Amino acid sequence: MSAARIERCIHLIRGQRIMLDADLAPLYGVSTRVLTQAVRRNRERFPGDFLFQLVADEVTILRSQTVISSLGHGGRRYRPYAFTEQGIAMLSSVLRSRRAIRVNVEIMRAFVRLRRIPSGRARPSCNSYTPSGHLVTELRFRNWSKVSNIDVFLLARGLPQ
Question: For 147, left (φ over 0), alpha (ψ -120 to 50), or beta?
Answer without folding.
Answer: alpha
